[in-house]
Task: inverse folding
């Protein structure tokens, strides 16, 4: 019998440390599949965040560098400039990228650095106990907003893809989701294009994934999928927000 499905070669044998139903495992697999398919593993350097994916280096066979909290884009910039032939990607959550790392995120994008930034948006701080994140929805309950996010005191959720797309330099900015089979297949296509933007030296790419955090959402894995589709995508619409190279 022919094997038609297997673990990507770019993943190690270490078991994921993520909670059941979390989207990080799906996104890791998509990255690994493309590292295999595009023959990038040997030249890839990932930059891990502070957050749930802090130990991403355990799961990939490519080189990884750990960045200080929020500084992944700055570290990725330095690596890419020092090793221009390397394939460099930053992997960040909403607190790492959109809170403490907002300045590094904006300026790396504004400079058009030749890197790929992968942003995992689950609307809550997953690692530290489910506190409000920059992407927490209006009226969404978290451990620090037990009555729901009040936009008069906490502000509105940040739409990072839209913000990055307003800048002149970025080449490819997209928001996708891993909340269903169709969404995952679409996300893989977007991620592949983001990778190609870098391999073809066409500039900076930013790919945002709407992802599940059942543990801190207080939902079952299935309920969290439906919550993403019914709530998160209403405020964070899926789609391509900037594409300088539609032919790629």
Result:
């Amino acid at each position: 019998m022919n094997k038609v499905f297997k673990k990507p070669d770019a993943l190690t044998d270490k078991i994921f440390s993520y909670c059941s139903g979390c989207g990080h495992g799906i996104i890791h697999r998509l990255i690994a599949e493309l590292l295999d398919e595009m023959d990038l593993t040997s030249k890839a350097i990932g930059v891990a965040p502070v957050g749930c994916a802090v130990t991403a280096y355990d799961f990939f066979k490519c080189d990884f560098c750990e960045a200080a909290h929020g500084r992944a884009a700055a570290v990725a910039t330095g690596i890419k400039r020092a090793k221009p032939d390397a394939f460099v990607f930053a992997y960040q959550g909403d607190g790492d990228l959109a809170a403490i790392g907002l300045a590094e995120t904006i300026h790396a994008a504004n400079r058009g650095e030749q890197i790929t930034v992968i942003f995992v948006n689950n609307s809550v701080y997953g690692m530290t106990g489910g506190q409000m994140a920059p992407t927490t929805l209006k009226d969404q309950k978290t451990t620090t907003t037990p009555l729901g996010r009040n936009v008069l005191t906490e502000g509105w959720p940040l739409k990072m893809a839209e913000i990055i797309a307003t800048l002149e330099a970025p080449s490819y900015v997209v928001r996708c989701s891993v909340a269903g089979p169709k969404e995952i297949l679409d996300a893989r296509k977007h991620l592949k294009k983001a990778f190609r933007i870098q391999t073809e030296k066409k500039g900076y790419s930013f790919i945002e994934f709407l992802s599940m955090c059942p543990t801190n959402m207080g939902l079952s894995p299935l309920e969290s999928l439906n919550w993403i589709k019914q709530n998160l995508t209403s405020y964070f619409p899926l789609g391509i927000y900037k594409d300088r190279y539609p032919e790629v």
